[in-house]
Write a structure and sequence with these properties.
Length: about 60
């Protein structure tokens, strides 16, 4: 069974963004995550839904 918990490196590879961008999104509360000690953790399904929601908002903005 595939783990649904992702670390920062895994999310960066999946979203194809630099770690600095991910950490900025985390610090600003833009991406759903939790901090455990010094480490950010992400639920794969929640991040996928967040990404889909962002994509649909972008498409809606562009169609106006």
């Amino acid at each position: 069974m595939r783990s649904t918990v992702m670390n920062a490196d895994e999310v960066c590879r999946w979203l194809r963004i630099p770690k600095s961008t991910l950490y900025k999104l985390c610090s600003e509360g833009e991406i759903p995550c939790t901090k455990i000690g010094k480490h950010w953790r992400f639920d794969r399904q929640v991040v996928e839904q967040w990404f889909k929601d962002r994509m649909s908002k972008q498409v809606n903005r562009e169609s106006l």
